[in-house]
Write a structure and sequence with these properties.
Strand order of the largest sheet of chain B: 2-1-5-6-7
CATH architecture of the largest domain in chain B: 3-Layer(aba) Sandwich
Number of domains of chain B: 2
Strand content of chain A: 15-25%
Strand order of the largest sheet of chain A: 1-2-3-5-4
CATH superfamily of the largest domain in chain B: SGNH hydrolase
Number of helices of chain B: 12
Strand content of chain B: 5-15%
Shape of chain B: elongated
Structural class of chain B: alpha/beta
Number of strands of chain A: 5
Radius of gyration of chain B: 33 Å
Order of helices and strands of chain A: HHEHEEHHEEH
Largest interface: A-B, 47 and 58 residues
Number of domains of chain A: 2
Radius of gyration of chain A: 21 Å
Oligomer: heterodimer
Chain lengths: 157, 384
Amino acid sequence: MKWNGMKKIIMIGLVGTVALMAFTGCSKKEVKDIDVKTVANSLLNDIKYEDQLSEVSYDIVYDMEDINVTDSAVYVSSGATAEEIAAIKCETKEDAAKVQTALEERVKEQKDSFENYVPKELDKLDKAVIVKAGNTVVLSISNDDAKAKEIIENASK
Amino acid sequence: MIQQSQRREWRRRRRRRNNIRVLLKILILILLLSGIVYGGKKLYDIYNTNSSKGNSTSKKSNTTGSANETGKAKNPDETEESQQPKPTDIANNPDATGKPNSSDKVDGADNPGTSDMSGEGNKPGSTDKSDEGNKAGTTNQSDEGNKTGSTGKSDEGNKAGTTNQSDKGNKTDQSTGAKDSDNQKGNGNSVKADDSYFDDAVFIGDSRTEGFGMYSGLKNTTVYSEKGVMVDNILKDKVVKMNGTKVTIIDALKNKTFGKVYIMLGVNELGWPYDDVFIDHYKKVIDAIKDVQPNAEICIQSIIHVSKEKDKNPPTYINNKIISKRNKLIKKMAEEENVIYLDLNPALTDSSGYLFSEASTDGVHLNQKYCLVWKDYLLEHTLN
């Protein structure tokens, strides 16, 4: 009898826990969305750049016509260097994945452009940091990829 | 004896079973509690997210309504404020345009004299102020045709006035022959056109034009540019992305009819030893563009000078003496090709003819503030 009671308790406990987890959709680990302005500002101010970066609209630089972007902060170089910052928040995770692809494509295109133009910029492009956290994607092209990763990691905590 | 040992064994087993039960109970309790806490926390988060999403949705609809809210096309003053200048070192990046053949030795390796530059961007006694002088001169002219044209740039009345004035002014230019004898401009307007002027424009060029495309904030115009592009490869290289594939600029031009074509090339070719080769190639580029855009007004922009620091430092072929020489040839070529030549240097250089030192970190590529100066200059010197 006692063992049967035990089994009942175990079953109830397990079912309760599983039900709660399933109900809240927490079977997967959730990642906190990054505040785009904050992370872009940190990347701009906490990393030393060779060129002066200026803020521009994301859709002037990237081809993201079919993506629903809810917030963004993009800083680009004058053309002297490949340095760049982008933090783009989307409505959905699917859109965030598209943004990630677009940013990867951007890095690739910049590599092609700089290869015969200012080859030393390839170092920065090779170390380009692209991080997707929740519905936000962050790109950093700089001389200090370790610092960039640290900033983005801190922003997503 | 056997029974006693059996009893002891049973007691031991019972104790062990009891211990296991207690442990299991504790484990289940912990599991239950953590489940409840975790679930509760997530429920709370979901509730928070939903409520904040509601707020952001209403915010978003406002943003869409005001079109330019999300950090694009700010007006120059706003942009200046939003710029966060970083400590920069011009000397850090001296070779940003180091594309030309380094073997090319031009006599211009010597530092240019100020007197040479005065022949072009800055005429004697005419620095930035001379440009304003021109504007003032045009103001009188414009007043005749458009009395309402004050300084307002965004209201409809002025917009219409500017259009009429452009037409009139351009006809005058053409009637005097060779698209403005001074070849300084298309149409020096006292009333600045607004950004919609660029609706039917296309900008073609190298990294400087690319920078202009991004920093000008113009979303209503077309920019076909590529870093390092030159007059000898611009017709061949596939640099424009269209529908997922790359095409040449000429092929891209075939897809849309433009009213104005602005071209700026030449800074990457400064190391070329033969001027005539450069000009021959440039002519071919213009002819190819004419073929695909027969009705467009074509404007060749001058090569913008470099900063003093860039001028004095290697690579030696990137200097204002050579740029001035090339600009004179470009201007002559524009006359021969019957297209407009527009010298941008009055707006972007100091009294010695150097690109303003604060305009660029590497002495070649313009920062956002000066790309907006460039844009304003084009709006003040409209084509047809």
